[in-house]
Amino acid sequence: MRIYFIKGLFLYFLIFFINFCLYSQTCPTYSQRNNGNGGGNSDCGSEVGLPSGYSKTGSFQFTGVAVNMSVLKVEQWNGSAWVTYQNNSSTPATYGTFWYGGYNGANGKVCFYANGGGNGVPPAANWKFYFTPSGGTQYSCTYNIDASGVLPVTWETVSAQKQNSQVLINWSTASEQNTKDFEVQYSTNTTNWDAIGTIKAAGNSSATRNYSFTHQTPLKNNTYNYYRILQRDLDGKFSFSKIVSIVFDEPGPDFLVYPNPADKVATIYLSEASEVSLINSAGSVVWRSKLPAGRNQLTLEKFSSGVYIMRAGKSNQRLVIQ
Fold first, then answer.
1. Burial (CB count <10 Å: 0-12, 13-18, 19+), residue 104
2. Do 79 and 42 share a structural domain?
3. CB 303 within 8 Å of CB 321
4. Which of 49, 106, 109, 132 is 20 to 30 A from 28 (CA-CA)?
5. Domain contains 270
6. pTM of structure
C-alpha cells in the first residue's frame, strides 16, 4: 500500500513539474483587444497594486497558457529603445496613464485600467510584458498591438528540425496585415541574438503563408541552438515569434564564424581560447585579438566590404563582409 502511495505521489509531482516547465517559459499568444468594462473585474487577473483613481477600460485577450501569472513590469517601445512603463516592484511603484493587471490563465486576459476611467485604451505600440508564473522565473514576451486591436501577424506555427548538419526553420502565418519581412534570429543563450537571414513577407494575406530558412552553421558539441522570428511591418512596428531550439550531440568544429556573409557583426565561436586574426585580400592583418573560448562578437563597421580570411591558430575561414 505504501509503495502505491509513493508511486502516486511521484506521478503527481512529475505531472506538476512537466506542466510547470511547459508553461513557465511559454509566451501567451495575443488574439485581440476587448475595449470596455464588459464582465466587470471578476474576469481579470490579479489587481494587487492597482493605483487609486484607475478603473478597468478593457483587456487584451490571449491564448495558449492556462496558468495565472503576475505582471510586475511592462515596457513600451518608443521607436529606438524599450522604456519602462509600469513597474509594480519598484519603490515607489511606477506606472503611466494605464495600469496593467495580472494574467488570468482561465480566460487568457490581461486587463488594463485607465487613470480617471472613461473609455481610454492603451496606444498602438509594441508592448513587452514580464510574466512570472507562481514559483517560476520571470520572462518577457513582446506584442505588436495597433489602435484597432488587430494583430498585424497571426502566428500559426514555428518549428526547427535537423537537416543533416544544418537546421531548417519553418514558420507559418494565418493572416498578415502590412507586413514587410521576417528576420530569423539565432542565439545560444536566449539573451544575445544575431540576425542570420531575412525573408520577404506577404504584405497582406488572409490565407496561410508558409516560410522557411536554413541555418547552415549551427553549433555542435551538445550546444543548444535557439531560434526566433522577428516580424517587421512597413510602418516600423514589429513582433516576435515563440522561441524554438535544436541541440546537436555530435562533435562540431573548433572554430566557426557566422553569419557569413556578414554586414554589422560577426560572431566567432572557439572551442578553446585562441589568438584570432582578420586578413584582407592583400594579405595584411587588419585586426588581431586574443579571444576566450565560447561565443565572441566582432563589430565590422570599421572594415571595408570585401573577402577576408579569419584565422584562429592553424584554422582559416573565409569571411565576406558586405
1. buried
2. yes
3. yes
4. 49
5. yes
6. 0.50
